[in-house]
């Protein structure tokens, strides 16, 4: 059974806005992958229950999500994770990821392991913030020379939070040496390069889940 480590944010506030995980960016891939027979483990830097951005769901959640949310009710701490146990890692989005994913030693170590061992590395929307400031053992950017996507500057401006976030993700990914691609605002867009699979926005979640599954199968 293939095992996927899904990493979510612990941050529940950005400026005066309540934030957290963008729920569909965990649940939609987790649903796809568990139905395919993969094992999903939820993880975060601090562990425990993951805050969910209230803008990412209504009071009525799809029934197909029943049971799939369990891994984010009590996530494992990254310091307790043995990367040898996993075939792939996936960084979920939500604005909270912009605060706790960058410049993190545990994330750097995990990314270095998955990159050096040519295991799948995925990220969606703000999830590629995990590639900002995190380097391999040679002190080189994890995504230097890699084609990737993530939430665009134009999309961030449209949220009204561009002044609240610590940086614009598109700019920082380019600064890290990545070859950034955008499919346009709110357009489904997934980029595959080497062992990296990235999606631009929530609209890309289902497609990235399918592509990730195909590469793991």
Outline the secondary-structure elements.
Layout: E1 3-7, E2 13-14, E3 17-18, H1 24-35, E4 39-44, E5 76-77, E6 88-91, H2 97-100, H3 105-116, E7 120-124, E8 147-148, H4 153-159, H5 169-175, E9 179-180, E10 190-193, E11 196-199, H6 205-216
Helix pairs in contact: 1-6
Organism: Halobacillus andaensis
Domain DJ-1/PfpI: 24-206
GO molecular function: glyoxalase III activity
Could you characterize what this model shows?
This protein starts with a strand and ends with a helix. The chain has six helices and eleven strands. The chain has one domain: 3-Layer(aba) Sandwich (Rossmann fold). 25% of the residues lie in helices and 18% in strands. Helix 1 (24-35) packs parallel to helix 6 (205-216). It is globular, with a radius of gyration of 15 Å. The mean pLDDT is 95. Strands 5-4-1-6-7-11-10 form a seven-stranded mixed sheet, sandwiched between helices. With 217 residues, it is of the alpha/beta class.
Concise overview:
The protein has 217 residues and is of the alpha/beta class. It has six helices and eleven strands. This is Glutamine amidotransferase.
Counting structural domains, the number is: 1
Low-confidence stretches: none
Radius of gyration: 15 Å
Order of helical and strand elements: EEEHEEEHHEEHHEEEH
Please list the strands of the largest sheet in the order they lie side by side: 5-4-1-6-7-11-10
Mean pLDDT equals 95
Intertermini distance: 10 Å
Supply the number of helical segments: 6
Strand content: 15-25%
Helix content: 10-25%
CATH homologous superfamily designation: Class I glutamine amidotransferase (GATase) domain
Keywords: Glutamine amidotransferase, Lyase, Stress response
Domain DJ-1/PfpI: 24-206
GO molecular function, one term: glyoxalase III activity
GO cellular component, one term: cytoplasm
